[in-house]
């Protein structure tokens, strides 16, 4: 590991340290402009209210029946009245699958990224397989996994782990590939060990991309969890969406479940957005 | 640093960055290594610091050959300050102590911050500081370790002329107080003359010793000295050595 400083001509200074962001530039996700001032916040709320009541008025005036498109007030009403009876347990079931699957996938993805980026040869071998995992919807595996394992949480947990893990991995790998020679040299000149260099230089340098990986990975995990519930499950928000949508009718119950999924997705985004702000704000 | 002798040829890939380069640096001396870009100055410094191994030859510090980083004796100051952007100033200065698993010397750090006019900025992050302040912080980071030898790699190269003058004066003040051995790499001729006891001029590709100039200017030095005819004549002379690549000067040296 010493060789990382040995045989390269130190040519930093004029050019910025080379940063390979990998095939996809995900960092845009964390740089979405968030409202700051009171005016901006009130404007956003005003637009939301306009959409809500505009839709309500349009549906009332046109006399659209509820089984074609339920009114927003009916959806929100259903959400609150039925939350305890239907949605709380469904939400808990989805969250369990998501959290366990993401925890497994993200840890494996993170460790693999840290290890693999130290060995470029292995990285090149593994890359195509990771790409296959990233581009194939893991929901496709759920019927097979259910066949093998049976109706339980495990097939969905595995699918979530397979969906989120590679996302965490490619982003974290991008982070770990940032080798700022000067900063490593700095640590080395004070006698830092390889482990210290990893902990105090490489990891902090990679942290912004790791957080992006967690964000993208957890959102992919949510998509997979809900999708898997729609395919084969007797519980969870995905199951409720399918259950309450009896062709050719839609129901307020279905839309309330969709709303919860949407809110869950936004919450996940916001959690990682603020984690990023707190732990990776040095990289504007 | 007593009679450190280095004779080496470094071979970085196919590039011969340094070619049979020898020089003695005395303890407490301030030596500037001067040369155009790409003449192996940085390679020289990285070899001195033990970060890069030489292909041939050796560097001896205090009677012991340098085989790797010597954090107790050598402090390094990099281009662009090289602060860690995710740490505030205090945490950046504490960084070497963390690496060495030692308690930070709070009194010494406070005194150094005072001397470099950084008191009150301990909680600021690097991006909130000017280039000059960042480089002063990196000097504090190095000096807080109290190394016997300070290696400086074009530390003020990115700063504007006014800040550079200020930094040079600060460096001379700190040096005259502590009398550390300083090897200062630069491509700025007047900076080299202004600071140094001796200016070591290098030729580019491969990096060879062109000539060593003894600088007889009295100390403490002032910015006004840089406008004296003698000073300007010396700049001219060194410039000629650099431009001629030291070819016909080798015999003179």
Word description of this protein:
The complex is a heterodimer of chains A (284) and B (253). Chain A contains ten helices and no strands. Chain A is an all-alpha fold and 284 residues long. Chain A has two domains: 33-64; 68-279, MetI-like fold (Orthogonal Bundle). The model of chain A is unreliable at 6-23 (pLDDT under 50). Chain B is of the alpha/beta class. Chain B contains seven helices and ten strands. Chain B has helices at residues 41-49, 89-99, 106-115, 131-143, 161-178, 189-195, 229-243; strands at residues 4-12, 15-25, 30-34, 56-61, 64-65, 74-77, 149-153, 181-186, 198-203, 208-214. In chain B, the strands form two sheets. In chain B, strands 6-7-8-3-9-10 form a six-stranded mixed sheet, sandwiched between helices. Chain B has a four-stranded antiparallel sheet with strand order 2-1-4-5, with helices on one face. In chain B, helix 2 (89-99) runs parallel beside helix 4 (131-143). The two termini of chain B are 24 Å apart. Mean pLDDT of chain B is 83; it is low at 249-253. At the A-B interface, helix 7 and helix 8 of A face helix 1, strand 6 and helix 2 of B.
């Amino acid at each position: 590991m010493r060789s990382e400083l040995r045989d390269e001509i130190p040519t930093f200074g004029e050019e910025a340290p080379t940063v390979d962001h990998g095939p996809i530039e995900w960092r845009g996700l964390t740089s979405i402009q968030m409202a700051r001032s009171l005016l901006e916040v009130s404007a956003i709320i005003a637009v939301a209210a306009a959409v809500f009541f505009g839709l309500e008025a349009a549906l009332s005036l046109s006399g659209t029946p509820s089984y074609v498109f339920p009114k927003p007030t009916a959806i929100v009403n259903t959400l609150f009245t039925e939350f305890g009876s239907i949605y709380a347990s469904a939400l808990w079931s989805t969250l369990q699958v998501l959290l366990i699957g993401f925890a497994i996938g993200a840890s494996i993805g993170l460790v693999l990224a840290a290890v693999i980026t130290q060995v470029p040869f292995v990285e090149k071998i593994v890359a195509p397989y990771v790409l296959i995992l990233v581009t194939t919807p893991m929901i496709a595996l759920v019927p097979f996994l259910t066949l093998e394992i049976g109706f339980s949480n495990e097939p969905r947990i595995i699918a979530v782990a397979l969906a989120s893990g590679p996302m965490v991995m490619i982003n974290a790998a991008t982070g770990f590939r940032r080798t700022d020679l000067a900063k490593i040299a700095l640590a080395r000149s004070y006698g830092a060990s390889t482990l210290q260099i990893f902990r105090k230089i490489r990891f902090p340098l990679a942290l912004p991309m790791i957080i992006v990986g967690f964000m993208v990975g957890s959102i992919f995990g949510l998509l997979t969890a809900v999708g898997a519930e729609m395919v084969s499950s007797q519980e969870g928000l995905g199951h409720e969406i399918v259950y309450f949508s009896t062709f050719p009718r839609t129901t307020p119950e279905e839309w309330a479940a969709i709303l919860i999924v949407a809110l869950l997705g936004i919450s996940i985004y916001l959690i990682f957005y603020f984690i990023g702000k707190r732990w990776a704000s040095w990289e504007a | 640093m007593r009679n450190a002798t280095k004779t080496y040829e470094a071979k970085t890939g196919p590039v011969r960055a340094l070619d049979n380069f020898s020089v003695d640096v005395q303890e407490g001396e301030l030596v500037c290594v001067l040369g155009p870009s790409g003449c192996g100055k940085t390679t020289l410094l990285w070899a001195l610091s033990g970060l890069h191994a030489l292909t041939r030859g050796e560097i001896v510090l205090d009677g012991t050959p340098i085989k790797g980083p010597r954090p107790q004796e050598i402090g390094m100051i990099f281009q662009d300050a090289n602060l860690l952007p995710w740490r505030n100033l205090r945490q950046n200065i504490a960084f070497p102590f963390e690496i060495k698993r030692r308690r930070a010397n709070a009194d010494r750090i406070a005194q150094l911050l005072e001397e470099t006019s950084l008191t009150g900025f301990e909680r600021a992050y690097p991006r909130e500081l000017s280039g000059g302040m960042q480089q002063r912080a990196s000097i504090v980071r190095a000096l807080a370790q109290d190394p016997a030898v300070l290696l400086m790699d074009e530390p003020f190269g990115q700063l504007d002329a006014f800040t550079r003058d200020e930094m040079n004066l600060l460096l001379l003040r700190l040096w005259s107080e502590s009398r550390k051995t300083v090897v200062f790499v630069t491509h700025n001729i007047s900076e080299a003359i202004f600071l140094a006891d001796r200016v070591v001029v290098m030729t580019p590709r491969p990096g060879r010793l062109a000539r060593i100039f003894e600088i007889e200017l009295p100390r403490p030095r002032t910015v006004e000295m840089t406008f004296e005819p003698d000073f300007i004549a010396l700049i001219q002379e060194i410039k000629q050595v650099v431009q001629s690549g030291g070819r016909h000067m080798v015999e003179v040296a």
